[in-house]
Design a protein that fits this description.
The complex is a heterodimer. Chain A is mainly β. Chain A has no helices and eleven strands. In chain B, strand 5 and strand 6 form a beta hairpin. The chains are: A mainly beta, B mainly beta.
Chain lengths: 113, 112
């Protein structure tokens, strides 16, 4: 099980600003998922990235997987108050009869109107 | 509607009084898991189950038990709760090797 480092831990911005949050590891990810957790709810999957260098877009969210598969970033363009939440990255390990997610501690994003 | 349900959503109890948090999923998923979420520590896995009658320890199993007698249910049992088990608990399910884990709404447990 590798340690996932997410940064920043907290981020407070104004509506309309752009932002990037990061997920890093000292080891290679098999695959990586990003989740968003809103207050009072469980995490919800945003995206899975598998291939080094992969870029995926989900409306105003852009996810990038590093070439070496040891880091990932989430960029939000023109943030809105509805983007407020805890953003979690998770390493997915799937092999044989084993399947496990290991989560980072998250980035708590607040978008102020 | 595909979902994971947990009960109760909120629970305040006293040290040593056995309790069970239920978890049920209606997606026929093989894999189910329990996590606890604490400030500054993130989501940590307590126990998981790959299928009926197959369970295994996660990263923080001490003080917890689970069972998987049916595919849809995965209860979390605290035989003798202690204050350090005060936390927000999430149940999740997915297909094996599946793309997404579906999380329940959470159970906020306070042990005094």
């Amino acid at each position: 099980t590798q340690l996932l480092e997410q940064s920043p831990q907290f981020l407070s911005i104004q509506e309309g600003e752009n932002l990037t949050v990061y997920c890093n590891s000292s080891s290679v990810f098999s695959s990586l998922q990003w989740y968003r957790q809103e207050p009072g709810e469980g995490p919800v999957l945003l995206v899975t990235v598998v291939t080094g260098g992969e870029v995926k877009k989900l409306k105003r969210l852009t996810f990038q997987f590093g070439d070496a598969r040891k880091d990932s970033s989430l960029h939000i363009t023109a943030a809105q108050p509805g983007d407020t939440g805890l953003y979690l990255c998770a390493e997915v390990y799937s092999g044989g009869s084993n399947y496990k997610l290991t989560f980072g501690k998250g980035t708590l994003l607040t978008v102020n109107p | 509607e595909a979902q994971v349900t947990q009960n109760p959503r909120y629970l305040i109890t006293v040290t040593g009084k056995k309790l069970t948090v239920t978890c049920s999923q209606n997606m026929n998923h093989e894999y189910m898991s329990w996590y606890r979420q604490d400030p500054g520590l993130g989501l940590r896995q307590i126990y998981y189950s790959m299928n009926v009658e197959v369970t295994d320890k996660g990263d923080v199993p001490e003080g917890y038990k689970v069972s998987r007698k049916e595919k849809r249910n995965f209860p979390l049992i605290l035989e003798s709760p202690s204050p350090n088990q005060t936390s927000l608990y999430f149940c999740a399910s997915s297909s094996i090797g599946g793309n997404e884990q579906y999380f329940g709404p959470g159970t906020r447990l306070t042990v005094t």
